[in-house]
Write a structure and sequence with these properties.
Length: about 425
């Protein structure tokens, strides 16, 4: 099974970076397909921590071709900073390729993201304010600037000046904000274009050829199923489709080329930003999980909201993505809890719902139905096989398997590469 799509099965931050890194060690190509520098992966190699936002985590393997595909929105300044910091740590980026069709985040997108959030008052989405939404808006409005445009000065100038004119009208007339100077942006971005030119290519063709050759290709996930523009907890979502089908569109291949979809589930649930979260813990247990799990955003540093594992969400993610196997992350964080709760359904009025509700209003009023299981006091970070895990931890994992109907392929018991229990071959 050489083509694997990895997706987040909750609200993002499931620990996909570590799983991507694990799979990337076996893959010949890693493709990032959606989102932008709203995402952030932390990969730990030995004692070194690498934080990446745009560059696929596979970049740490020099022989793995790393693709930023057409579905991604790119802030070139952020990308160049990331490339420079990798180079400073001795990581080569010769294996990086960028799609000519990926859209570019411009300074006015970032400003509009901030202003739109501020104007929403109490109904803020809690975006990362990186300009992601406004860049995708321009893409859908068919006025966006793509990486390929940046490389053609005449085309770039023309598109940019037209956009700056309309954005300035919006900034001044609607928000009473300062306008942008088109020429300044042009000069700044032409420098970025020069720096990135050598990486830009037709990545869909590159992916296609690699798949045709039967090589192992990994589509790495960003964000998560519940943040999907179509299937997530709208309007508290991102502006792309970080689900398995979105990976095909964002990577430029057809769904029939995908062999396996792997979902990543954290052993508990977290979310950043606003929006409903049925199993949220606003007590000392939530705080304990946040501290032990270091649940603070890689991108914004915001404290993540923490709660119990939610099987309703996990089943929904299986349905939306067609998940074949799960990777469970951060099981070690649950160690030391007396009792562990698992949400098996939602109470809505006098009904028990086992399926994720389509209506946000219904979801907002849902209360979790819990099953309680004993916890385990042991530190499991040194465990490398399922059999060595404490019985209570095995019971917990088996229950997740039963409730979702999906096998587990890997369990992570710590952030380091070797703190991993492998249960199945991923590319088989
Ligand atoms: P945006 O993607 O910056 O527009 O933010 C929209 C929503 O998605 C906000 O609630 C963000 O907190 C959330 N979000 C975006 N990217 C991530 C991520 O990588 N992890 C978790 N939440 C994210």
């Amino acid at each position: 099974m050489p083509v694997v799509v990895l997706v987040g099965a909750q609200w993002g931050d499931e620990g996909k970076g570590k799983i991507t890194d694990f799979l990337a060690s076996q893959a010949e190509m890693v493709v990032r397909t959606t989102g932008g520098n709203n995402a952030g992966h932390t990969v730990v190699v030995g004692d070194e921590e690498f934080k990446v936002h745009l560059v696929p985590s596979g970049v740490l393997y020099p022989a793995t071709l790393c693709i930023i595909a057409n579905g991604v929105v790119i802030d070139p300044k952020v990308l160049i900073d990331e490339i420079d910091s990798l180079l400073a740590k001795g990581v080569t980026v010769d294996n990086l390729r960028i799609s000519a069709n990926a859209h570019v985040i411009m300074p006015y997108h970032v400003r509009l993201d901030e202003l739109e959030e501020e104007s929403k008052g109490d109904s803020k989405i809690g975006t990362t304010k990186r300009g992601i939404g406004p860049a995708y808006m321009d893409k859908a409005s068919r006025i966006g600037i793509r990486m390929g445009d940046l490389l053609e000065e005449k085309v770039f100038r023309q598109k940019l000046m037209r956009n700056v004119e309309t954005k300035n009208r919006l900034l001044q007339k609607v928000y009473g904000a300062e306008p942008f100077e088109g020429e300044e942006i042009l000069q700044e971005y032409l420098v970025y274009a020069q720096r990135l030119r050598g990486y830009v290519t037709d990545t869909s063709l590159l992916v296609h050829k690699t798949v045709q050759e039967g090589k192992k290709v990994l589509f790495e996930g960003a964000q998560g199923t519940l943040l999907d523009l179509d299937h997530g907890t709208y309007p508290y979502v991102t502006s792309s489709n970080p689900t398995a089908a979105g990976a095909c569109v964002g990577g430029g291949i057809g769904p029939s080329r995908v062999d396996k979809v792997i979902g990543v589930l954290k052993a508990y649930t977290t979310r950043v930003g606003a929006g409903p979260f049925p199993t949220e813990l606003l007590d000392a247990t939530g705080e304990q999980i946040r501290q032990k799990g270091r649940e603070f955003g890689t991108t914004t540093g915001r404290a993540r909201r923490c709660g119990w594992f939610d099987a309703v969400i996990a089943r929904y993610a299986v349905r939306i993505n067609g998940i074949d196997a799960f990777a469970i992350t951060k099981l070690d964080v649950m160690g030391g809890l007396d009792k562990i709760k698992l949400c098996t359904g939602y109470r809505y009025g006098d009904q028990i719902l086992s399926e994720f509700p389509i209506s946000q209003e219904v979801l907002e009023s849902c209360k979790p139905v819990y099953e309680e299981m004993p916890g385990w006091p042991e530190d499991i970070s040194g465990v490398r096989s399922f059999e060595e895990l404490p019985q209570a931890a095995r019971n917990y994992l088996n229950r997740i398997k039963e409730l979702t109907g999906v096998d587990l392929f890997l369990v992570a018991v710590g952030p380091r590469r070797d703190e991993t229990i492998v249960l199945q071959e991923a590319f088989s």
